Amino acid sequence: MTEGPLLVRDRSRAPFVLAAVILMALGVAVAAAIGERLDGAAVLPLAGAVLVLPILERRASFAMFVLAFAASMTGEVAAHLAEGMTLGGGLANDLLPMASSAAMLAFIYGLVWWVSDQSRLADARSAHALTSQRQLLALNERFLATVDPAQVLELIADSLKAVVAYDNLTIYRVDRHAGVLRPVLARDRFASLILDNAFDLDHGITGWVVSHGEAQCINDAQLDPRMMLIPGTPAEAESLIVVPLMGNGMVAGTLNLGRMGDGDSHFSATEFEMARLFASQAAIALQNADLHRSVSTRAETDALTGVQNRGAFEARIAALLGDPGMQPLTLLMLDLDRFKTFNDRRGHPAGDALLGSIARGISGAVRVGDRVYRYGGDEFAVLLPSTARAVGAEVGERIRAAIAAVDEAVATSVTTSVGAASAPDDATGRDGLVAAADAALYRAKASGGDRVVLAA
């Protein structure tokens, strides 16, 4: 059930509004009684309007000012009529004085309204800024608690909308090795087109921001000569904010916000500043996530060969065996043939170099989604999710051929034996699967090596 009239939004405001109306009515009565015109006609109704300024919203306050002005003018007319009857004059003789009084009242009311309205707007801006800063502080805690880069990107896109409203958002990362900007997240109706297009570091408004390290707020961006359209997207009226994401003193990417449309879509100076503050925190969060990923990657990477290590293997095989959607899961166990002899003859530095070459050969022979690990010494393991044992054997044969090619290139006698086992056909648990693949591997070595053998 609604509370009542528009001006009275809750009961606590009713006494103030009633007092304001009484003051306006008194202004009319006093002006008619004493004929002092502006003194009675202006002061009391104006006091009534000012009384409710702190408790009413902007439109309601304006309505009260209009009502007060009407009361003042009514008091002026009543005062002139009273004086005219007393002095024997007519209303027609007072038109010029009344017009002068109306102009004076309009000026007084307009000035008071403008001052109060500017104060109200300033308070609103301060309150909004304070709220936004509190939001940024809360977001900062969430940013620092999130260390996965993909999750940080999603958190940026989700959180920013509460600070600065946008119609579309894109985050770019700088790839300095390739000399391009790569989109890593897009919230846009043309997201697929945006994500498929990398472009040179100096192209468009985004490229300008990367080159100059300076944020840009461009309302009516379609008129900017630097504007560059993503292929396949239409030319539309749009306002843009592009803020650099800094990392280690360099531009590591950009945060791009857009609003579609003309004047109503323009970003304000306050929104631009909030986007810049947000971007600075987002950049720190991304840098923190990248650092965490780098440390995690180093912890899971074999320093000698560059493939993942035994610890990463154990974590991955447990995860895959626990996910029915990744099965059948094929495991390939590899052991180099005659590697110890090569190491003894050529020395450990040559052996280390050969292991690196063999690891690269294995990585080049597997498919997207397969994972290569150094299991220990001259042993390697390959996990093939969603792969039947027969298909896994084909991959194993490609690996065997790749290592044989490395052998020919460096004139060694090193080849590889491969054992293949699959879950759930050969085993359902980690130990059983590794044991089955190991057993097949040793049968391959017992048969002379340089071959792939399936688990029995």
SSE topology:
Blueprint: H1 14-34, H2 38-51, H3 58-87, H4 95-145, H5 149-160, E1 168-175, E2 180-187, H6 191-195, E3 199-200, H7 204-212, E4 216-218, E5 238-247, E6 250-260, H8 269-300, H9 310-321, E7 329-337, H10 339-346, H11 348-365, E8 371-376, E9 379-384, H12 389-410, E10 415-423, H13 430-446, E11 452-454
Parallel strand pairs: 10-11
Antiparallel strand pairs: 1-2, 1-6, 2-3, 4-5, 5-6, 7-9, 7-10, 8-9
Helix pairs in contact: 1-2, 1-3, 2-3, 2-4, 3-4, 4-8, 5-8, 10-11, 11-12
Folded structure, characterized:
It is built from 13 helices and eleven strands. It is α+β, with helices and mostly antiparallel strands and 456 residues long. It folds into three domains: 11-126, no CATH class; 149-298, GAF domain (Beta-Lactamase), CATH 3.30.450.40; 310-454, Alpha-Beta Plaits, CATH 3.30.70.270. Strand 8 (371-376) and strand 9 form a beta hairpin. Helix 3 runs antiparallel to helix 4 and helix 5 runs antiparallel to helix 8 (269-300). The relative contact order is 0.06. Mean pLDDT is 85; it is low at 1-9.
